[in-house]
Amino acid sequence: MIKINKLEIENVKRVKAVKIEPTSSGLTIVGGKNNQGKTSVLDAIAWGLGGNKYKPSQANREGSVVPPYLHIVLSNGLVVERKGKNSDLKVIDPNGQKAGQQLLDSFVEELAINLPKFMNSTSKEKANILLQIIGVGDKLAELERKEMELYNNRHAIGQIADQKTKFAKEQPYYPDAPKELISPSDLIKQQQEILARNGENQRKRQNLVQIQQQHTLQGQEVERLKRQLAEAEAVYAKLGQDLAIAQKDALDLVDESTEELEQNIQQIDEINRKVRANLDKEKAEEEANEYRNQYDNLTNQIEKIRKQKTDLLTNADLPLEGLSVEDGELIYKGQKWDNMSGSDQLKVSTAIVRKLKPDCGFILLDKLEQMDLDTLKEFGQWLEQEGLQAIATRVSTGDECSIIIEDGYVSGQKIIEKSEEQAPQLQQKQWKAGEF
């Protein structure tokens, strides 16, 4: 990884003359009170390495007749200078060959010199940057599109299922009603059949009466007509046999009632209304169950896609352990961006920036006064552990600061007067970068 070994800055914004040798790994804090030139140091580095799009609108220090001067020595041996009236860029590689901004752009990550651009972006933009650099952005976007499509479909199906279930519950039900609709013609036919059978019974009863009458008459005839006794007795015996048969037939006869059928015929519309209500309720319940099954099936599909997303991120080469993306937002140690501590936000930002261009081993951080000393120490230790270099500013003059800027100078550095044509020369008081 390429880092900043040395830098010299003169007459840029509020900086008069500053020389810094940042610690190679960890946190180099440029401290001082407000309006002393701390942020100007970071702006000068960004201009020197990032190109003219980072040139301050008023680059020349107010009141200075000497043009800005930048001299940055990188760990790969490159020397970057901006000097002269037009602040022209000059990049010299270790072999003495000249190079330009294109060479710097090949390893200097834009977000490393403009970290607020990342930190102030939306949660979705942060997540998209991470997904693109680990190579799963397009695939994850497709899975999320499918998940949303299934989710919307399931939501619609669920609403229909709930409506069907509610509708089914509201339908009346009559447990005493038959399962099928009643046909008036069937009832009339059944009535006619019963009436026919009852008519036959009546005929048999009338036949019984007639035989009884004949039997009586023949008995009288026997009494009156002795001479015809033999014939009459024969007839009488025959009639006695018929009488026995008729009595036996009549004994087991039971007339069927048509009262129920007559009531059904009269109430057929009401009965059929109940049957239709029951059929509608059963149909509504079947439809509700069908939609509920569709809902469960879509739920299973959504769970499968979510597992694919989890597996995709689990197997991805993430820049920081515990970092992931859920529902289009960055998640670190289970927390979304707005719930992360300031230290964790900086860790996540720095890790992602490093992943964008692994050769870029430094970042610039402004306004670290928002961090307490413990958090600052924790962040500095993490940088050292990761072998990263951070140059940061902090409104403070405490021991945590590597250098202190006072009125555009590094406190303790002796300034040697020089003319505009002379190369800038600074003699720095011996110091050591702050350790955490």
From TrEMBL:
Keywords: Coiled coil. Gene3D superfamilies: P-loop containing nucleotide triphosphate hydrolases. Residues 222-315 form a coiled coil. Signal peptide: none annotated. It comes from the Bacteria. InterPro entries: AAA_GajA/Old/RecF-like, P-loop_NTPase. Pfam families: AAA_15. Residues 3-312 form the Endonuclease GajA/Old nuclease/RecF-like AAA domain. The keyword Protein biosynthesis does not apply. This is AAA family ATPase.
